[in-house]
Design goal:
This is D-alanyl-D-alanine dipeptidase. By secondary structure, the chain is an alpha+beta fold. Helices cover 26% and strands 16% of the residues. The protein contains six helices and seven strands.
Length: 199
């Protein structure tokens, strides 16, 4: 039995916008299949629930761009853009591929409007780093708000990506997972091994 649980929008009170299931990502094409679901390790799912509970009284809601990312998908991203500042080398494993990382932003619960974070998701630029002074003050406040809620809920942040949070000690506490663990609910479309890369 694999440790992943589905993160359904209605069950977790979040919005799902899986960027890698569309062409609206830095590769310019879908990486996941069109019916890809959102999954997290059970411990990460519990931490997400805690974050949702902390954000709700503030009138805020989460929009999730990515969660579990099969190891094969990490190879696809790395083969397209092997940038260690923003992508984990798949030979070491991404926290996403352990099922304990989530890429997300905050929205206004009532209107659904995304809070300004200064850059778009997956903007591979130094302006995506935490602690930047060259973004508007409102975006600085919004990043600090996201950071505070997520850290208070038990997540740790990535200094290079305002959108990325993961559980502590990911590589030592969890197991690297491939798409095969999901069986028929797998996230990747049928691809050759050469297209996927090598785990």
């Amino acid at each position: 039995m694999h440790p992943l649980v589905p993160v359904a929008a209605e069950d977790f009170a979040v919005d799902l916008c899986l960027s890698y299931a569309t062409a609206d990502n830095f590769t310019g094409r879908p990486v996941y299949g069109p019916d890809a679901g959102c999954f997290l390790h059970a411990e990460a799912a519990a931490a997400l629930t805690r974050a949702v509970e902390l954000a709700r009284p503030l009138g805020l809601r989460f929009k999730i761009f990515d969660a579990f990312r099969p190891a094969e998908a990490q190879w696809i991203l790395w083969n397209h853009t092997p940038d260690p500042e923003f992508l984990a080398d798949p030979r070491q494993g991404s926290a996403h591929s352990f099922g304990v990382a989530v890429d997300l932003t905050l929205t206004e619960a009532e209107s659904g409007r995304e809070l300004d974070m200064g850059t778009a998701f997956d903007a591979f630029t130094p302006r995506s780093h935490h602690g930047r002074l060259d973004i508007p003050p409102e975006a600085q406040r919004n990043r600090a708000l996201l950071l505070g809620v997520m850290v208070a809920a038990g997540w740790e942040y990535n200094p290079h990506e305002w959108w990325h949070y993961q559980l502590p000690e990911a590589r030592s506490r969890y197991v690297l997972l491939s798409d095969a663990v999901l069986g028929e609910r797998g996230m990747l479309p049928p691809l050759s091994g050469r297209e996927r890369g090598t785990i």
